[in-house]
């Protein structure tokens, strides 16, 4: 018969894991040696925080704040500023890899693809555009800033494309509200699962407010 772990062992386990992580940071100095002596800054499995080892560097290209620390959150918004899906990403992928899966998620939830998809230029690729059009998306308002095609530039000046981009800009305001009103600028829970829970609770709270406003306006 297998021995079950004692209550004390269960209580001590989280602290042992923290100590092991701290030991990995403080012994060997592998990352420091790689950066100082070899000039390697993109070291695999780099630990940025002893207490939150899931933390990543997020580079947004802002002059005032070029680097931020945390985890990337993908948010999908539909009409009436309702957030239909979110995901806390353990590792930051290239934005263009998220577009097709976002449309697939929408299709699973609502049984049909969205009529229009709007996103910023980081999500653009010709392959993405053709893929989601084949899935049934009628209008794709994702700009390509590097295009040299006059036909493409003309498309991006059409009224529906500019409206789609204007709606996407409004989504940036939703992200700001999530940070200011619901505390998503800083997670108060520990660990990656804690961050997922914190983000989810903030989004639920915001959706309740938005749904209440919509119902009040209809009444």
Task: Describe this protein's structure.
With 219 residues, the chain is mostly helical. It has 2 domains: 1-47, no CATH class; 70-218, no CATH class. It is 49% helix and 11% strand. The protein has helices at residues 7-26, 30-38, 99-110, 126-134, 150-155, 159-182, 191-218; strands at 56-59, 67-70, 73-77, 83-88, 116-118, 139-141. The protein has a two-stranded antiparallel ribbon with strand order 1-2. A hairpin with a 5-residue loop joins strand 3 (73-77) and strand 4 (83-88). It is globular, with a radius of gyration of 22 Å. The relative contact order is 0.09. The model has no long low-confidence stretch (mean pLDDT 81).
Count of domains: 2
Mean pLDDT: 81
Strand order across the biggest sheet? 1-2
**Please, how many helices?**
7
Write the layout of secondary structure elements.
Layout: H1 7-26, H2 30-38, E1 56-59, E2 67-70, E3 73-77, E4 83-88, H3 99-110, E5 116-118, H4 126-134, E6 139-141, H5 150-155, H6 159-182, H7 191-218
Parallel strand pairs: 5-6
Antiparallel strand pairs: 1-2, 3-4
Essential attributes:
single chain; 219 residues; mainly alpha; two-stranded antiparallel sheet; 7 helices; globular
Short characterization:
The protein has helices spanning 7-26, 30-38, 99-110, 126-134, 150-155, 159-182, 191-218; strands at residues 56-59, 67-70, 73-77, 83-88, 116-118, 139-141.
């Amino acid at each position: 018969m297998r021995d079950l772990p004692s209550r004390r062992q269960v209580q001590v386990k989280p602290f042992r894991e923290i100590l092991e992580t701290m030991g990995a940071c403080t012994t060997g100095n592998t990352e420091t040696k790689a950066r100082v002596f070899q000039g390697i800054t993109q070291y695999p499995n780099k630990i940025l925080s002893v207490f939150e080892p899931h933390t990543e560097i997020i580079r947004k290209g802002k002059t005032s704040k070029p680097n931020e620390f945390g985890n990337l959150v993908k948010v999908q918004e539909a009409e009436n500023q309702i957030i239909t899906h979110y995901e806390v990403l353990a590792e930051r992928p290239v934005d263009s890899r998220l577009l097709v899966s976002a449309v697939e998620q929408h299709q699973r939830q609502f049984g049909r693809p969205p009529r229009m998809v709007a996103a910023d230029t980081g999500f653009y690729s010709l392959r993405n555009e053709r893929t989601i059009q084949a899935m049934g998306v009628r209008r794709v308002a994702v700009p390509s800033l590097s295009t040299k095609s006059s036909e493409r530039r003309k498309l991006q000046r059409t009224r529906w494309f500019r409206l789609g981009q204007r709606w996407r800009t409004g989504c940036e305001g939703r992200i700001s509200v999530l940070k200011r009103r619901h505390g998503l600028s800083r997670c108060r829970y520990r660990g990656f699962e804690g961050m997922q829970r914190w983000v989810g609770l903030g989004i639920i709270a915001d959706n309740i407010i938005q749904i209440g406003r919509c119902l009040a306006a209809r009444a």
